[in-house]
Amino acid sequence: MAQDSLSPPLLQVDGLTGGYGALPVLHDLSLQVGTREFVAVIGANTAGKSTLLRAISGLLPKVSGRILFEGQDLTAMPAHEIAGLGIAHVPEGRHVFPDMSVEENLLMGGYARKDPAGAKRTLEHVYTLFPRLRERRQQAAGSMSGGEQQMVAVGRGLMLEPKLLILDEPSLGLAPLVVEEMHQRFLDIHRAGVTVLLVEQNVSLALHSAERAYVMSSGRIELEGAARALLHDDRIRRAYLGI
Question: Do 212 and 1 touch, CB atoms closer than 8 A?
């Protein structure tokens, strides 16, 4: 669902500069995500995409510029407070709790919720979205395949009932059939009304999923536009699609 041009964006990043040490990874970066949009950020492995997501989630130690969510400045806010505003970050590498069951992992995602009945409904929604997790809800998450662990990680993020779901390289290391299955679930999540910000090295997947996209290089935004237009942009086709 495209953002109404008259409405303020759900997420707005203005002039963001930041990194981990003396040298910044991000350089005067600006982007926005509208309510109920599906936006992708693509680029090479060293572009700074994951660093951008960490900055939004309050996990980057040194930043300047502004990050606004529903008009509220997140720039100096701790990560747990940012999550409490409705931003769920599904990190690269999944990071499930390996010795805990699938259901215990999911319930950890909703630990801060004050509505037990609502959390139960969300858990049921996650099981409907990922039936395999219902079948294996008592299985240790660490014993599952990479694709199943990715389902757990996404489901754990959904347990927050987020306004914004941030996905960092969700297709990394997964078999093509699993990647396609996850792609369909992300579309389902978006159709259900969740705003999605996707970072992906799989450029074809990202541009077929998103409505709009940004292209990052060396910590800067190099291109932006409608995802389908970028899919047919010769610069993108040569650099990322090999055609």
Answer: no
Tell me the one-letter amino acid at 56.
Answer: I
Cα–Cα distances (Å) from 68 to 24, 92, 111, 115, 235, in that order, read: 20, 23, 25, 27, 31
- DSSP per residue over 4-37, as a string? PTTSPPSEEEEEEEEESSSS-SEEEEEEEE-TT-
Distance CA 56, CA 52 (A): 6
Neighbouring CB atoms inside 10 A of 7's CB total 9
Cβ neighbours of 188 (radius 10 Å): 12
Q: Are 221 and 28 in contact (CB under 8 A)?
A: no
Closest Cα partner for 154 from 186, 112, 120, 176?
Answer: 186
Do the Cβ atoms of 65 and 104 come closer than 8 Å? no
CA distance 108 to 104: 6
Residue located via tokens 């990071």: 95
pTM comes to 0.93
**Using one digit for the tens of pLDDT, what is the confidence trace for 90-146?**
999 878 999 999 999 999 998 878 888 999 999 999 999 999 999 999 999 999 999
Scanning the chain, the segments in alpha helix (DSSP H) are 49-56, 79-84, 102-109, 116-129, 131-135, 146-158, 176-191, 203-209, 227-231, 234-236
In the block, which residue shows the tokens 């987020």?
162
The dihedral sign for the CA sequence 127, 148, 215, 63: positive
Is the separation of the CB atoms in 18 and 52 below 8 Å?
no
Token readout for 33 is 């995500």
